[in-house]
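Fig. S4 source data, part A: sequence.
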Amino acid sequence: VEFMQLQSEELLASVLAEIERARATEDRDALAASLFRMATLYRQHGEPMKAITPLKELLALQEETGDRHAMIPTLLLLGDLYRRQGGWHHALALYDRACAMQEAAGDKTAMAATIGSMGVAYEGMEMWEEALTTYRQSLSLKESLGDLVGVALIWNNIGNVEAKRRRFEEAFDSYGKSLAIQERAEDRLGQSMTLANLASLHQHRGEWEEATLRYRECLSLVGKEDPQRRAAALNGLGFVRKKTGDLEGAIAAYEEALRLLEASGDHLRSSVVLHNMALIHEERNEWRDALRLMEQVISIDKRIGHPDMKQDMEVFRRIRSKLDAERDAHQ
């Protein structure tokens, strides 16, 4: 681990030196390449938020030259980074700029994908009507392009919104449309996503056996090539195991999910898993372990400006009061 960390530090130092040389010689092409390389290194080493600074500088450089063709992928990458950390407003602004450029270029395929990402951001902000409207725009474009896999993905996203609004029958219908297309297209990764969402829907309805079955089907389809999707399924399976009284199995599922998320630098979802683990330790009266995990959750909340920080602080105080009460009882 120390050797890998040293290699990483040496690579970053090397790229920083390249950036300084490019600035000194006013070599815009070399500067752009080095900034992108630095952002890539940060992302590869699980520090996606640090990638934002060089990408913003790269975007400013591209804006100076008016290179719209180069700006679009930078805008999208920045949007994705903000979205994955819960920076919905920043993500939407970046996606909107990219979409306008794609429309001007007549690139409907790219537009459909970007509009879909905007829907995800609206969904993250719990703006359900805006999310559904945006998803339907993307759906219409993808249908006109004959993009079956893309159509299935959007039906899946629509199902997510309906589930969050507790419109369960509409959610089942949307997921069913998605899964049927994915099975015809032999889209294993797509099927795994829909199965995970169906499992989550059964979970919300308290149908634990059906939820467990769907999560296991999902995990059988998705491997190491998609760590975030596998982690999401494991997180759901952990929740179901907790509800059925299998606390050891729940912890095991959560720990595997956490390893995958931390390795991919997904702090937002890592905080969810840490929170879930803390609640299990609280249930087992393991106050110190629960507090240790909640401290990590709050640290992430502060770093990314998570809106749930107030509630997480309340959980921390609740667990701390239980630990204090236990200490007082033994004095």
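Fig. S4 source data, part B ends here. Residues 1-6 have pLDDT under 50 and may be disordered.
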